[in-house]
Design brief:
This protein is an alpha+beta fold. It has helices at about 1-30, 35-50, 55-65, 120, and strands at about 70-75, 80-85, 90-100, 105-110, 130-135, 140, 160, 165-175, 180-185, 190-195. The longest helix has 29 residues, at about 1-30. This is Secreted protein. It comes from Streptomyces laurentii.
Length: about 200
Amino acid sequence: MNVRHAKQIGRGAATAALATGLILGLSGCGGDKKPPQDDKPAKSSAPAKADGGAGAQQPSQQQDPTEVLGTLTGQDGFELAINSAERDAGGFVTVKGALKNTSGSTRAFPAGARGDEMEIVKHSNSLGGATLLDGVGKKRYYVLRDTDGRPLTTTGLDMVKGGASLPVFMQFPAPPANTAEVSLQVPTFTPATIKLS
């Protein structure tokens, strides 16, 4: 009985191995159709390689957000381009963008952009002075802070090289759902109206 049982198990294992082999063999046959699909990305990347330096910049341009909701102009050639202002389920709005030094030389980020509140000033240079102004609801929303008083925004903004661009973010309490646009205001920068998504 044990011998018969062992033979049946052995036959079952052999049948399973044969079925697995057939499945792998059939999927291997279907693999012949994949190289043309693989050729398509190769063709799309071929012009990027042919461009030399321009091709090297294309991937970074695709990673950067292309939409600019608004641009704030600051002192000494600084610009703040806002690329997104998204609400999240927790009742916050996260604003993301790029801080650029448009001048040809290294500049110190203006310390005034962090505002003048003592809790924020004692931390490094930041966009801690930023606010969202809801003109319809007539309310101003300040950058959120953690339990130690640090602003929930990009910090450590000191010297920025000429032509350099840095990704930045700011997080605020969310205005009411019916508020579609707000004015983003950062000390030492001109304000800009941006749409909330």
